[in-house]
Amino acid sequence: MKKLLTLLLAVMMIFGLAGCGSKPADEPAADDKTIDTLTISFVPSKDADVILTAAEPLKEILKAKLAEKGYTVNNVDISVGTDYSATGEGMISGSIDIGFIPASTYVLYHPDGVELLVEALRYGVGDADHKVINPADGITPWNAGITTDADGMATGYASLIYVNIATEKGADLYEKAQAGTLTWDDVNSASWYVCSSTSSAGYVYPSLWLNQNFGEGVGETKKTVADLANVIPDGSYANMMNSLLTGQVDVTVGYADVRKDAASTENFEAAYADEIAAGTYTNVWDVVKVIAVSDYIMNDTICVASQEKDPKMTPEFVKALQEAFVEIGQTEEGLACVEPYAHKGYQVGQDSDYDGTRAANALFQ
User: Fold this and answer.
1) Domains in the chain and their CATH numbers?
2) How many CB atoms neighbour CB 141 within 10 A?
3) Which of 70, 100, 118, 329 is in Cβ range 3.0-4.6 Å of 42 for a Cys bridge?
4) Tell me: the pLDDT tens digits for 37-60?
C-alpha cells in the first residue's frame, strides 16, 4: 500500500511540473509572431495635421505587408513628436518603436539605442544622361555640361561651392580647384555669400568642406564659414546666385544644382545679354563653375529602437520591417503616406553612410 501511494505521488508530481512549464491555451507561445501595438512617430518638419492625415493609411498598409511576412500586428499607433528630439527620446525610452527622423537625429541618438532601418530616397541631380552624380566623383561631372533632375534615386545630395569664371577671382579659384592647389589663403581672400547658419547646403556642409581641407579637427584650428574674412550671411539661393553672376561676390554655395533653377537662368540672361547675343556664352553653366563638392547631406531615415530598448525588435522582425518599408516605397499608395516628406522610396543602408553627418554634427556641437 505504501509503495502504491508513493507511485501515485510521483506521477502527480510529474504532471504537476509539466503543468507549471506549459502556457495556458490563450497565452501566445514564445515564438508567436503576434504584436499587439506598433508605435510610429514622425518628426514635426511639417504641420502635424498634414503629416497625420497623409500617414493614416500607413496603419493598414504596414499591417498588411507584415502579415505577408508572417507577422500579425493588431494595432499601429501614429503620432508626431513635439520636436525632433521627442521622437529620439521616445525611441531610447522604449515608448516608440519606429521613428521617421533626419540623419542628424539618427546620429545623435544612435549611441543610446536607435538603429537604422532604411534610408529615404529622393530624386537626385544628374548629368546629361540623367545619371545621378555622386559627390565622390569630384567637381568634373558638375562642370562637364548642363545638369538636370535625374530619373534615378539618391540617398542624399551634395552642397556645391560655386564661382563665376567670367571674373578674374573666379577664374583663378576655378583653375586652382582643377589643379588641386587651392589654399586657405585663396578661399579666405574671396568674398562669400551664404545662407543662415542652420542651412545644411548653404552653410553647414560648406563649413565641413572648409574644415576637411584647411582645418585641423574641431578645436581652435578648425576652419568654417565663420572663419572666412569676408562673408555675407542669410542669403536666399536666388539672390546669392544673382550676386555671383553680377560679380558682387566671388563665391557662393548651395544645393546641387542651383544652376538648373529658373531664377539662375533668368539672372544669367539679364547679366550677360550682350555676351549671349554675341555667342560668347550660351547658358549659366558657361560662367558658373563648381570648385568643391561636399559630403552627402543624407536624406531622412526610418529608424527603430534597439532590441535592448525594445524587445520586440528581434533581428527577424527588423528584417521584416525593412522589407515592408522598401516594398511600401514602391507603391503609389505607400508614397502618398509620406508625401509631406517628399520620400520617393527606401533602401537598406549602413551606419557608415552617416560618417559625414557625424563630422558635421561634431563641427558645430
Assistant:
1) 36-121+299-363 (3.40.190.180), 124-297 (3.40.190.10)
2) 19
3) 100
4) 999 999 998 999 999 999 999 999
